[in-house]
From TrEMBL:
This is TRAF-type zinc finger-related family protein. One of its GO terms (cellular component) is mitochondrion. InterPro entries: Innate_Immune_Apopt_Reg (IPR051986), Znf_RING/FYVE/PHD (IPR013083), Znf_TRAF (IPR001293). It comes from the Eukaryota. The keyword Protease does not apply. The lineage of its organism: Eukaryota, Viridiplantae, Streptophyta, Embryophyta, Tracheophyta. Coiled coil: none annotated. GO terms for molecular function: zinc ion binding. Residues 140-169 are annotated as: Disordered. The keyword Transmembrane applies. The chain crosses the membrane at residues 177-195. It comes from Tripterygium wilfordii.
Length: 205
């Protein structure tokens, strides 16, 4: 069976497409009248849609978050990875905030402490992961030597003694006040009896 030979083609000088040679003249007339090549991407676009093609494909656009102007094709990457106003979350508290504020926020947030339930120590949040991998569950407060214990007891005894000495002047003042009140009461009572007896003697005479 004979195989049909391929039809001869010619390259359109306007759009660089391979066109059957029998139709090349008709194609060229239509192509040159209706199409033009985009100077940016090289695509052939209808002349009546050339401006729309440029605006929708190549015109610079502004980021809706930071208002920075850029080419349209890099806008998605900018918004997802580079925009300083994109919303990110703090790794310590998961609070959402603009990326430009993240470093300052985490500097403060990471210094907050939480209680480790294994060793009962308060650990900074920024050190929490490394602490968990090394924590043995033994509190440093339970590892003190007997010497430290005796020193602590002596210190507590000294504090109690100082407290007692500080209380002595107040106790002395209170006793002196009670003594003064008692003496004054006795003096008033004796004076009253003296004047009463003197008045009786005066009436008798």
């Amino acid at each position: 069976m004979a195989v049909a030979s391929e039809e001869a083609t010619s390259i359109c000088s306007h759009c660089d497409r391979a066109i059957p040679s029998s139709n090349i003249d008709l194609h060229f007339a239509h192509c040159a009248r209706n199409l033009e090549r985009c100077k940016i991407c090289g695509d052939m676009v209808p002349k009546k849609h050339a401006e729309e093609h440029f605006l929708n494909t190549h015109a610079p656009v502004s980021c809706s978050l930071c208002n920075e102007t850029m080419e349209r094709d890099i806008l998605p990457i900018h918004k997802g990875e580079n925009c300083p106003q994109r919303i990110v979350t703090c790794e310590f508290c998961e609070f959402p905030l603009p990326a430009i504020d993240l470093a300052e926020h985490q500097e403060v947030c990471g210094n907050r402490t939480e209680l480790c339930h294994l060793c009962n120590k308060y650990i900074r949040l920024r050190e929490h992961y490394n602490h968990e991998t090394r924590c043995t569950g033994v509190s440093d407060h339970n590892v003190g030597s007997s010497r430290d214990t005796r020193a602590a007891e002596r210190e507590q005894g000294a504090e109690r003694e100082q407290g007692a000495r500080r209380r002595d002047p107040h106790e002395f003042s209170r006793r002196r006040l009670l003594f003064t009140i008692a003496i004054t009461g006795i003096a008033v009572l004796l004076g009253s009896l003296f004047f009463q007896r003197k008045a009786e003697d005066t009436r008798v005479h």
